Structures are given as structure tokens and as C-alpha cells.
Amino acid sequence: MIPSDPSERLSLLRRIQEGDLVIVYERHDHMKAVKVIGGSVLQNRFGVFKHSDWIGKPFGSKVFSHKKGFVYLLAPTPELWTLVLSHRTQILYIADISFIVMYLEIVPGCVVLESGTGSGSLTTSLARAVAPIGHVYTFDFHEQRAASASCVPDRSIAGITICSLDYLEWEDFEKTGVNKLITVGVRDIQGEGFPDEHLGQADAVFLDLPQPWLAIPSAGKMLKPDGIMCSFSPCIEQVQRSCETLALKFTDIRTFEILLRTYEVKEVRAELGKGDEGFSFRSPPHKKRQHSTEKGDAVEASGAATVMAKPCSEGRGHTGYLTFARLKCV
Amino acid sequence: MGESNQTSRLTWEGCSVLLDINDGERLVFARLSPAATLKIGKKNFSLQPIVGCPFGSSFRVDNGKDGPYLSRVVPSEEEGGNNVQEEENVTGEELRDNRALVDNNTAQSLTGEDIDEMRRQGATGEQIVEALIANSTTFENKTSFSQEKYRLRKQKKYAPKVLVRRPFVRSICDAYFRKYPARIGCLRSDSLALLLSMANVTAHSDVLVVDMVGGIVTGAVAERLGGTGYVCNMHLGVTPHSLEIVRIFNFNNDTCKRIVRCCLNDLCPGQNGSHVQNENMASDSGNQLDVTEEDVSLEENKTSVDTSNKTGKRDPTTCKAIKAGEVASEELIDSWKEKGFSSLIIAAPEQDVWGILQKLLPHLSYSASFAIYHQYLQVLPSRTHPHMQMSAFGGYILSGTKICTSESGAQ
């Protein structure tokens, strides 16, 4: 997902290989992460897709099922990952994630601490930003999860038990090299604080905890001078209490709420020319159209398209408040 | 990758800094060259005391034997003495725009001459503020709330504070958005952050950028690449787009050589139809407009961005040997023709982005992400929807993933 050297970046020459992770795109709100394995098949409402048909095709290809239904095979990105990962917890979404990465001033080479890991939605984006030589240490206190099969045993770096979000995801991280950028630890950050080995080492700290004020003093100790932390809280009472704690050691305290308005874009009257030009802002393909676009290219090309956009009727409203603060310079 | 100037936590001779004067009252980009000065009030202050200090440190005006100079506020002193004030400053930040108080100095018995005399005798800014308070007949009757406001206002005038910030994309974008939004196409930092995410910018990416917003997008991408990959700044006409803002970042040689320019015709030869011609004209006139803006730029910008041009003495550690934005080599362009770019970002708020997108999409790798910033919602085919109020509005971002419909290439 994150290239660790120039040869791994997306390219027109790149082809899907055995073992690749692909995002199977049915429509903008329906995607699935699949690992390509020679003898396997993917079955969905569009039919049966053979993985072997996918190998050797470029990422981004449209592939067909036995009954001429189709899906697109996309290369995974942190944005797509956010959309396909299984939500064990309330996850952070793209607008918040983007802003967090920029406002924490995360650049390649940075060391970032995160707690909790949750479903790992933010973690992947943090890893993308610190790549190729930085590192994300992410901590979650989930005894249940740690005890379950999701825990990868015998992986220990510097005394931290490494626990994946779930086994498959960890495997995927390993395959794509993301695991070189992320270390997952099981730890109660509110109770114990971050491990001492990170003292004064962190460029940025991110907290998504129910009582962030308990972890803020530890975050302050981990940060380099002038380092930045961010706390995500859904409730304003949490923000108030966090700010009181922050004011002791931090400066430049600012709270944001990010609202992203998404639009529904629809073609009405006639189809846009040239058939499947393939922009994701076309109205999402549904079953009926899948076939019509296959056969009706010539007809559609002559029709004038009218494109309409309106704000999605059910938008994501409040997610949480993002409180940023800088460690005072000593 | 080499050492990155960007990750340095201390300033150095020749480094670029953002100076925040009186909690955002003024924002000045400056280069810490030996001759660089900052004008506060009527006086010019040398920026030399800032060299070697950690980013995030504060300075105030002190009186030395050679006159007033910028002196670093030692944090322990600040914490020991002014704890209460510190806390109240946090509150003060929210009140900055409240100008209900009338600045009517009939209650003040100290005259301008008195203050000048105090200065001559070496009084610090804080002492002058205290004297003003002591000589104000109304101060005692004010609520503690408005007392603090009074103190803050006097402090800004008589004991200005200068905070040294790292010029990262966050602070640069925020500063431009506040002071010169038009120069960055009103691109707000949260929108810029979204562009970078949606376009999947990461190390080792080759990012194609159409940046008609002063270089802020080019700089932001280069910051994310950290000296790997390439950011290719594409200009549509003969004149390259301004990369003025890129110089504000403290990019080292590794990063600077990864910022290259390329003309649309170099990438897609033989495509200069009438459509492109029109774009050429538009982009040229756009550049001219920039130049005019330069000429009328405010006082504080002159001391700042322009210091790099004025002093001619460039920072030896940043972009002396390699200048950001050299013309892309033929080999590089050929490799892009073969492999395609891994991301595309278009921030050309005054352009027909649909026309640009059509030309550039074939050069994007399959499954690569693109993101387009525009102030007007523009959807296929070139339909513009009613304008929204620009206040409290971050613009529109259109993003997507390029797909491949046949082996022969994208349509």
C-alpha cells in the first residue's frame, strides 16, 4: 500500500500479481479488500470472479464475472482502506484524518505515537506520512482482542507485545511493507502512559481516548520541544477538561471541528459520451446500467449529458472535536 | 535521503522562519540572513538573536547598551512570574476580535513624551505597561476581564512578543489564508490536507501538479515526499507558474532536486489546439496579475519573503546548489510517459479544469488517485453550479481513481 522504494510505486507497467491486495470496487459505497490467490474465486451479486483472470491485468482494470457482471480492481490506498476495514470501533474518516496529519506537521522521518489504535483507520494514513524512514507506534488496550486470535504471538520489539488489528490485516501490512512503519502495542495509555523508551522522541502524539486528560501529561513527556499533540473527543466536556490539563505544559491550544459535505453527482436524461470513461463521480453503476453501458456506447455518445450535483441527504455530521496543542519550548 | 533541514528543531543561519507577532496580529515570513531585520513599530530589529534558537521560542524587545534588541524570553522566567497571565492569554486569544472597548485615552495621565522619556531611561516594555496601568484613572473600575484586555492591548504596543514558527505547510498555508488568501486561491489548510490525502501522496510517488496557487501545493507535496519521488509542476502555457511559496519551506537539496517543472507540451506534444492556446493566455495573464500584487505587497511582506531576493545571500544549506523547480530532464519525462504518474493534483481555480484533466489523465498510472481543487463546483461536462458564499467555505474538491478500461490504455 505504501511503496518502500521507487520500484513499488504505481505505474502504467504494474500488473496485478499473486498475493497482491486489491480493493474490489462495486460502487462508491460498496468495496471489499481481497487478496489475490490463484485458485480462488470472488462471489458477489454480479457473479463469480476467478482470481486467475485478474493476474497480469493492470490495477484499475474492469474485470468480468461468468455472467458479464463487472467490478474494478483498485490498488489499495489508506483512503480506500478506511472504507473497507471492518469497524471494530468508531473510526476516523478522511476529512479528520487529512487534517490531523497536516496539523500535526507529520513529514517523512517523523516518530508518531497514537492511542488507541481502534480499527487502524488513522494508523495507515500516519504511516503513509512518515514513510519511508519514520515510524508510528500505536497502542490499544483491548484485553479481549489481545486474548483472541487477533493477537499475533511472539512478535516482540523492545518489550512490547505486538498485536495486530486482526490477523489478516497484519499479514497484509506485512506483505505491503506497512508493518515496517507501524508497531502495534497493547498498553493502557490512560493508566500507564506511553512507554519510557519514547521519552522526548516523538514529533507528534495523537490521542483518541475517553479520558484524554489522563494521558496528556505522558504525551507531553514523549514529545520533543515544540512538538504537537492532538486529542480527538466527541464531547465538548472532554475538550474542556483536556484543555485545562493542556494549559499546564502546552501552548497554541486550538480546537477544530471538521465538516465535510459530500455531493451526490448524477447524470440525468442521457448518458455521458464515450461510455465508461471511469470517473468515480459518475453516478454509481447499478445492475441495470452495467449491461446497458456494455452494449449501448454508440447511442450514449450522441446523447447530451446533464450532470447534477446535490449535497448528500444523509451526511456525516459531527464526528468529534480535534484539539491541537504545542509543547511549550523549554 | 540525507539529513532533512525540515526536521531540525533549531533555527540556523539562513533558515526560513515564520514570525508570529503578538499572537497572530502580524505574520511575517523571514530568512535569517545576517542583514535580515524585522520592523516593529518604527524600529528595525536584527533577526540575528533568533539564529540557533529552538522553533517555538518567544522573543521580546529589551533595551541593551546599543539600543533595543530582540531578546529571547527564557521559559522558566516566564513560567515562574507570569503563570496567571499565561492562562489568561489562552482566553485572550478568543477575544482578539472583540473591539468593543473604545481606545479613549482621556483617562490616561501619562503622555507620549513621558513614555519616550521612560524608554530613554531604559524601561522595559513591561514596565511601561505597568506605568500605563498605574496612571490610568479608569483601570481600577474595569472588570478583571476588561482589565486583562487593557493590559493585553498595551502589551502589544509597548511590549511586543515575537514567536518563531517552523515554516511547515500548516503554518504557511494558514498565514497566507489569513493575510493573502487570493495568492493561494483561497485554499484553506483543511482543503489542502484533503487534496494530499485524496491524491494518495506518499514517499516515492511521482506527483503531477498543476499549481496555480503560488506554489503552496507543490511545496506541500514536496514536504510529504521528503526527498523521494518527484513533484512535477506542470505549466500549461510558456510561462511557468510561480513557485514563490516553495522558497519559504526549508527544503534541503535532496528535496529541491525533486521539485521539477515541465510544460504541458513536453509531456503531450502536438496537443496545442486552440483550447490550449486559450489556457496559455489565461495563465499568462494570471502571472502578470501576480506580479502586480508583488508590487503593492504590504510592508510586512517585503521584510519577509523578499529578503531572499534582496540580500542575494542564500542559505548555504538549503537551495544554493540546487534550485527547486528546475526543468525536468528528458529522461525523467520519458520515464513518466512510460510509467505514468502515481498521483495528480490540480489547483487552478481560474482555469477550465476539465480541459486540463482530459489532457493529463492519460499520463496517470492505472488506479492512481487524483484530486482537484476548485472554488466552484464543476462537474462533467464543465457545468458550473451556483456560487456559494466564500466566507466559511473551503472550496470544492473532486477526487477519484483512474481506471483502466482496456489493455491499450485509458480513454
UniProtKB/TrEMBL annotation, chain A:
Keyword Repressor on entry: no
Segments of this protein annotated with the region Disordered: 276-300
Gene3D superfamilies: 3.10.330.20, Vaccinia Virus protein VP39
The entry's keywords: Methyltransferase, Nucleus, S-adenosyl-L-methionine, Transferase, tRNA processing
Binding positions for S-adenosyl-L-methionine per the UniProt entry: S119, G120, S121, L122, D140, D188, D208
InterPro entries xrefs: SAM-dependent_MTases_sf, TRM61_C, tRNA_MeTrfase_Gcd14
Localization per record: Nucleus
Matching SUPFAM superfamilies: S-adenosyl-L-methionine-dependent methyltransferases (SSF53335)
Known EC number: 2.1.1.220
Enzyme class: transferase
Superkingdom, taxonomy of origin: Eukaryota
Keyword Iron assigned: no
Catalytic activity: adenosine(58) in tRNA + S-adenosyl-L-methionine = N(1)-methyladenosine(58) in tRNA + S-adenosyl-L-homocysteine + H(+)
Domain tRNA (adenine(58)-N(1))-methyltransferase catalytic subunit TRM61 C-terminal as annotated: residue spans: 69-149, 171-326
Any GO BP: tRNA methylation
Molecular function as annotated in GO: tRNA (adenine(58)-N1)-methyltransferase activity
GO cellular component: nucleus; tRNA (m1A) methyltransferase complex
PROSITE patterns linked: SAM_TRM61
Similarity field: Belongs to the class I-like SAM-binding methyltransferase superfamily. TRM61 family.
UniProt protein name: tRNA (adenine(58)-N(1))-methyltransferase
Organism annotation: Chenopodium quinoa
From TrEMBL, chain B:
Domain of life (superkingdom): Eukaryota
Keyword DNA-binding: no
Keyword tRNA processing: yes
Positions of the UniProt region annotated as Disordered: 293-315
Coiled coil: none
Keywords associated with the record: Nucleus, tRNA processing
Major localization class: nucleus
GO cellular component, one term: nucleus
InterPro entries per record: TRM6
Location(s) in or outside the cell: Nucleus
Single GO BP term: tRNA methylation
Family label: Belongs to the TRM6/GCD10 family.
Annotated protein name in UniProt: tRNA (adenine(58)-N(1))-methyltransferase non-catalytic subunit TRM6
Species whose genome carries this gene: Chenopodium quinoa
